[in-house]
Amino acid sequence: MALYAIGDLHLSESGKKPMDIFAGWENHTKKLVENWNNSVRDCDTVVIAGDISWGMTLEESLPDFKLLHALPGTKILLKGNHDYWWASIGKMQSFFLENGLSTLRILHNNAYEADGFTICGSRGWIFENGQSGSEKIMNREKCRILSSIRASENPDSEKLLFLHYPPVFTGQEIRAYLALMRKYGIKRCFYGHLHGADHKRAVNGLYKNIEFSLISADYLKFSPFKIT
User: What is the pLDDT along the chain (228 residues), one digit of tens a residue?
Assistant: First the structure.
């Protein structure tokens, strides 16, 4: 077994939101499928760190979910800022069950064990382009991250934290999230959201004794990143 991660797939099998208009995203779904099939096996696990489908509802996103389901491995999905289809965990799990999407899992106030690691995570939050802060959203995400960390059933496994938003970016820190990582001994954090020119401003590597890794799909050239 192996553990992989990737974020920001921005799938649109319905054709309503093509990504080809953006530089570097030409035929990105085809590239993703080819790279995925060349590396991931059925016994592997892939964490997908948000911005998965452009569908506005679960029904609109069904073609994208079917594409993911058909790919090798178990897929653990967490929410991104463009996942408008996201609903209650019960509704999502029922929808997956009704449509035979047995390889898809939801990461929301819970945790999963995979390849000797504990998978924890949530969307996170960060302020961009001078937008004003929201303590309510910040604290809500802090509680979700904490619930996920505490949901671990194996105290001896290493906890890996997956977020959609970067917890550190252009001099800004989400200190509450970093404090949780330090308190619970999390040494590795993976995140997405950043594209294009922002790749160069991303934190990759050690920062305050925590290893951060950008896993946006375009940064990874649409190939899942192998953690183990």
Answer: 999 999 999 999 986 777 777 778 999 999 999 999 999 999 999 999 999 999 999 999 999 999 999 999 999 999 999 999 999 999 999 999 999 999 999 999 999 999 999 999 999 988 665 455 577 888 999 999 999 999 988 888 999 999 999 999 988 889 999 999 999 999 999 999 999 999 999 999 999 999 999 999 999 999 999 998
8 A C-beta contact, residue 159 and residue 184? yes
Q: Decide if domain 3-226 falls under CATH 3.30.1490.20.
A: no
Strands 210-214 and 205-207 come out as antiparallel
β pairing state of 3-6 and 225-226: antiparallel
The pTM assigned to this predicted structure is 0.95
User: Where exactly are the structural domains of the chain?
Assistant: 3-226
